[in-house]
Amino acid sequence: MDRRLELIINSLPALLRGTVITIQLTVLILIFGLILGLILAFGETYGNILIRKFTALYGKVVRSIPELVLLLLVFYGLPNLGFRIRPFNAAVLGLGIRASAYMAQIFRGTFKSISSDQITAAYSIGMGKYKTFFYVIFPQAIRSFIPPFANEYAIILKDTSLAYAIGVAELLRQGQYIIAVEYDPLTIFLMIAAIYFILTFGVTRLLKLVEFKLKIPGIGAESR
User: Where does the record place a coiled coil (predicted)?
Assistant: First the structure.
């Protein structure tokens, strides 16, 4: 058997173990970013002046710090404050904080995209701020949220490779273990690139299908 083909076959189990960790990281970071990002966007859009200033400052500070620096600050900073944290959890928290700042801006943009006439109409029939948000704004915002969310998903998936720096055995680190033994970096990195491509392309196509299914031309989503 060709040596390179043998290397590919023998490397697949370890790379797939790393892929599982990468997927777990991606899902948890997305959940963290979505929940906190939605809260931040709601606060920045509908909160009082203090909440708006705090959420705006949070976003500016977090978006100005490189992801790797943010990850290392969480990993090394929390133990100095007396909180022990596993590398995997530090990766979720550090990259999740970064994701929340960008998710907040995506949510905020979708909230602002809803016609003010619809909001005025909701108020005119006696709906308050919160009912208007949950029954009028949010359902429509979700439709326009999907395309930028697909973009953000791809970014978060690739950013999970930064967890390599703090010892998480995700896809890239598993690849480095193999390279250290076999020393064929080109083959291993090509396999890693192919796995990332499959994960990115597959999910973004799925999200595109969801966007198409939810699309209502002229209401909350433009025809494409």
Answer: none
